[in-house]
Amino acid sequence: MTQNPHVSDSYWLQTAPGGAPHPALEDDLDVDVAVIGGGIAGLCTAWELARAGRSVAVLEAGRIAASVTGHTTAKVTALHSLIYDKLRRTRGPEGARLYARSQTEAIERAAEIVDELGIDCDWETRSAYTYVCDAHRVEEVRAEAAAAKEAGLPASFVTETGLPYPVAGAVRVTGQAQFHPRKFLLALAEDLVRRGGRIFEQTTVHGLDEGEPCRVSTGTGATVTARDVVVATHYPIFDRALLFTRLSPRRELVVAGTVDAGRDPDGMYITPDENTRSVRTTPYGEDGGKRLLVITGEHFTPGTGDTRERFARLSAWAREHFPGVELTHAWATQDNDPTDTVPMVGPLHPGARHTYVATGFAGWGMSGGMMAGRLLARQITGEECAWSELYDPRRLRTAVREAPSFLKTQAEVARHFVGDRLRPAPPVDSLPPGEGALVRVGGERLAVYRDEAGALHAVSSRCTHLGCLVNFNAAERAWECPCHGSRFDTDGKVIQGPATRPLERRDI
């Protein structure tokens, strides 16, 4: 791989492409529950509900387990970087304990499913570490280890790890896991169908009527009537509780390559240093002599900065810290950070009676998505759950308490909404092949891409979600909205929401 690697499909997508696609929804349908979104949160919710005897339909705009879930690093852990010390200060010791318990039960549930269904998904038990190399941050890590242990996790402070470089200190939590997310979810989807669940791909949802029953309208023209509806689209496509103002999209890069199995660092690692670095390995090849090293970092707001330069930095870091690694893959993932730390899982808005949402997993969607599936299934079937209040999207007290994060997020959105319209626009003729930019044509600012053959592809530069201007990601060759994270291909087709409509094409 060169210093500026070409972006590939994720390793998970390449090694589990899936079988025959599920059909698009063509006819009206009546079910107990409609689940919008076919990632880990949506599929786990649908599976739990089908197991409880509900009729369920999953509506996915693309392919199931292929968007955000298909690009994750797939750590299944309750140690979410540095969160427990903050939780015990903002939510109290009981809030931290509920968070740890809910995430731990999600991991245990995943292990049960793997055993029950006999899923071959490279499930491995590993210790998880949050470490720092900066000695000035050691006390921060000590406090996190103490808070995580107080919350009920098997946590300890250590100074020795399996990494091939020294650390100043780390939190270690034993008994965590890692797996192949696509293999797991495709098997779960097969079992969902066996239980009577329906899955529809290439089916974009455009509208939601919260009557009794609810009605979900789709881009195919068909309507789903359901008693309950779950919005599990990563970033919600409907905003009926100001969720858009409480989420901040974050994109991260991933590089991966082979190392000898004897050099496996034997754990899952993350550090907040150096703009985040996350490290794990996964089985690779048939003979067991190699492992695939997966490294994540360089987080940034979608549509900002030079992504190729960031890939180069991450690749250089991988080679420096793991000499001899042969980089073979490069991809990117996207997450949404809630302004008050905890994911939002539960009723969609204060007046909701039959609509629910799951969002804001902040990079920990594997345990979070499994937790959401169980929580939402319990709420829909009328069961009690000890952590319903902790994750309730309608919470206001914590949102007010952490107002600085909320205000910072909104200031950033406002800056892009106004400032991006004031940037100078280059002439179309200056665009080299493989590049894109916002240019002015006939008084309108267009998003224009020149392909390798020299042909121009022009679309409206206004994101179809809420009207912010998109920017070009040259490494992934996509238009990205820095306000809420929607992504589009060079011809304007939606790659990732919350936008549901493509960028309008223009002739130049």
UniProtKB/TrEMBL annotation:
Keywords: 2Fe-2S, Disulfide bond, Iron, Iron-sulfur, Metal-binding. Pfam families: DAO, Rieske. InterPro entries: FAD-dep_OxRdtase, FAD/NAD-bd_sf, Rieske_2Fe-2S, Rieske_2Fe-2S_sf, Rieske_Fe-S_prot_C, YhfW_C. Residues 265-284 are annotated as: Disordered. The keyword Metal-binding applies. Residues 423-508 form the Rieske domain. The keyword Iron-sulfur applies. One of its GO terms (molecular function) is oxidoreductase activity, acting on paired donors, with incorporation or reduction of molecular oxygen. This is Rieske 2Fe-2S iron-sulfur protein yhfW. It comes from Streptomyces leeuwenhoekii.
